[in-house]
UniProtKB/TrEMBL annotation:
<dbReference type="GO" id="GO:0000976">
    <property type="term" value="F:transcription cis-regulatory region binding"/>
</dbReference>
<feature type="domain" description="HTH tetR-type">
    <location>
        <begin position="12"/>
        <end position="72"/>
    </location>
</feature>
<protein>
    <submittedName>
        <fullName>Helix-turn-helix transcriptional regulator</fullName>
    </submittedName>
</protein>
<dbReference type="InterPro" id="IPR001647">
    <property type="entry name" value="HTH_TetR"/>
</dbReference>
<dbReference type="InterPro" id="IPR050109">
    <property type="entry name" value="HTH-type_TetR-like_transc_reg"/>
</dbReference>
<keyword id="KW-0238">DNA-binding</keyword>
<dbReference type="GO" id="GO:0003700">
    <property type="term" value="F:DNA-binding transcription factor activity"/>
</dbReference>
<dbReference type="Pfam" id="PF00440">
    <property type="entry name" value="TetR_N"/>
</dbReference>
<dbReference type="InterPro" id="IPR009057">
    <property type="entry name" value="Homeodomain-like_sf"/>
</dbReference>
<feature type="DNA-binding region" description="H-T-H motif">
    <location>
        <begin position="35"/>
        <end position="54"/>
    </location>
</feature>
Length: 200
C-alpha cells in the first residue's frame, strides 16, 4: 500500500460543508425560516462553529449563491465555446445548462427560485453574474448569425437568458409546463425556441 492509498478521502472544508448543508435547506419552499441552528445541525457542527466561519445565515447564502453562479457562468462559457467550435445550434447552450443543473438541483433551485428578492446583496450578486451570462449569450448570438450587429446580439442574448431563466424555473420546480411535456420534450422545445430566437 502506497502513501497515497493511506491518505483519507477528500472531505470538504468545514466552511464548504456549512455552505453545502445550507443550500439544501435554502432550497426548500420555507427558505426564509431557515436558522443558523438548523444549518449547524445539517452540517454536523455547532452554531458557534458556523458563526466562526460566517457572520450570519445571509453570508452563508451569499457564498452558496456566488459559488453556484460562478460555476454556472464557467459552464456556460465552456458550452458556448464547444458549440461555436462545432458550428452547432446555439440552442444547445440553455439545454445543456439545464442538464448541468440536474447534478446541482438544490443550488440551482436556490438561485432561480427561493432566494429571489431575499436581500439587496443577493440581487446585486445576481446582477453581476447575469451580466457575465449576457456576455456568454452575446458571443453565442454572434457565432450563430453572420454579420450580427452589437444591438441585435444584445437583444438575442437577452432573449436567450430570459429563456434559460424561465426554463430553469420550470425544470427545477417541475411545474405544469414540464410535467405536461415530460423532460425530453421540454428540452426539445427549449432547443427549438432558442433556435428561433437566434434565427430572427
Amino acid at each position: 500500500m502506497t502513501a497515497a492509498d493511506k491518505r483519507p478521502a477528500h472531505r470538504p472544508s468545514r466552511r464548504t460543508a456549512v455552505v453545502q448543508a445550507a443550500m439544501q435547506l435554502f432550497a426548500s419552499p420555507r427558505s426564509d425560516a431557515v436558522t443558523v441552528a438548523q444549518i449547524a445541525e445539517a452540517a454536523g457542527m455547532t452554531s458557534a462553529a458556523v458563526y466562526y466561519h460566517f457572520a450570519s445565515k445571509d453570508d452563508v447564502l451569499l457564498e452558496g449563491l456566488r459559488s453556484f453562479g460562478e460555476a454556472m457562468v464557467t459552464e456556460a462559457r465552456r458550452v458556448q465555446q464547444d458549440v461555436a467550435a462545432r458550428g452547432a445550434s446555439v440552442g444547445e447552450v440553455p439545454v445543456r445548462l439545464l442538464g448541468w443543473m440536474d447534478a446541482r438541483a438544490d443550488e440551482a433551485r436556490v438561485w432561480f427560485v427561493t432566494s429571489s428578492g431575499v436581500s439587496l446583496a443577493v440581487e446585486q450578486l445576481r446582477r453581476e453574474l447575469r451580466h457575465d451570462l449576457m456576455t456568454v449569450f452575446t458571443r453565442a448570438a454572434k457565432a450563430a448569425r453572420a454579420r450580427t450587429s452589437a444591438a441585435e446580439a444584445a437583444v438575442i442574448a437577452t432573449a436567450l437568458l430570459s429563456l434559460l431563466e424561465t426554463a430553469a424555473t420550470s425544470w427545477l420546480v417541475e411545474d405544469e409546463s414540464l410535467t405536461g411535456l415530460g423532460r425530453p420534450a421540454f428540452l426539445e422545445e427549449t432547443d427549438l425556441l432558442a433556435r428561433r430566437i437566434t434565427s430572427l
